[in-house]
Amino acid sequence: MPQWTLHGNGRTVEPGAVVKPDERLNWGATIAIGMQHVVAMFGATFLVPILTGFPVSTTLFFSGVGTLLFLIITRNKLPSYLGSSFAFIAPVTAATASQGMGSALAGIVAVGILLALVGFVVQFVGIGWIDKLMPPVVAGAIVALIGFNLAPVAWTNFQQAPITATITLVSVVLCSVLFRGFLGRISIFLGVIIGYAVALIRQEVDFTAVNALIEKGQWIGLPEFHLADFASPGTWSVIAMFLPVVLVLIAENVGHVRGVATMTTRSVNRQTGRALIADGAATTLAGAFGGSGTTTYGENIGVMAATRVYSTAAYWVAGAFAILLSLSPVVGAVFNSIPAGVLGGVTTALYGLIGVIGIKIWVDNGVDFSRPVNQYTAAVALVIAIAGFTMQWGDFQLGAIVIGSAAALLIYHLGNLIARWRRTGADDGGPIPAMGQLGGDPQDA
To answer: Among 7, 84, 354, 368, which lies 20 to 30 A Cα-Cα from 41?
Structure first.
């Protein structure tokens, strides 16, 4: 059973101090913060199964189970909530449409197993090889292309109810700039609530499934489980389109660990390998029985930064609360009733934000886009993703995410090899050095 030391008086956090992972506040405060973590992740986590057609309750169940598994594998030293990863939306949508849910789940399982294997390597070898394989220009391109590849999906939903979609989109943007702190960080969740209210007024919500469950009195029940299908011939061609997702999950987990280490103690970085193993195990478990793939959640990093509480005790509460919430079929049916217009509005912002996260990786790492290798690494990958390039040999098909990711890796590494051999100066010369003051107008000496 995990043990925590009581922080101070158990009620407050002193100025300049933080509640460390092995500490906790009193149980009343800890439970409240744990429930706040569920609210923070909820807006993003429930959107993934809605967009992919997976059962919401099942995904919520495995996000809770995955969080508890993550805490166990990281030996209760790394605070994190595992929510649904947006990186799975594009491959799951394509796989479900062509081969069915079982094959899509098999792809999720494959990603989980590969991520766990990477975690074992990192645990024993270190993380330097990942930085060399996937430098900032490549990592940013892969994250960005996954978001931009989903743009047509957002438009398909948007045009079904343009007025509702527009109000939803405007609400998301307004909430992000209107509110401070926690409310500003859950702007997507608030946008969905406002959009749903508009859809109710416009009579665009279908409550048939919800009413049927209420009439049967099915307020409590187990989630709907589905098994991954590795037997169908088309499954193995589907799995290929999932593999680039591993690169995104690696970047997200490594970034999460480094973020927590910056705000608590550098020793947290030693948990990087275990974090990858844990997320891999959670993703494998979810995919095997009908849930969405998982990842560490930035929304919960925001909650920790706001509260200065990094106690893993809050995440045990959050995981348990998510599991309890998933045991209501009615709750799942309510979320499944969200109409296309609301989804179109929120995903227009959401998919764009995924793309912008990739661009932020370039900015934060000072990628030099005056170098041709960097230019073409990003340019080719993004156009492939946005246009939806595909390649097919018989029944085997590669989608835009696979092709774009492969293009980014090949152009970068082969381009650098040739440019350095020929000494043309086209290779990646490293980050751009900072010039002058950061921000504002130049000042006279």
So the answer is: 7
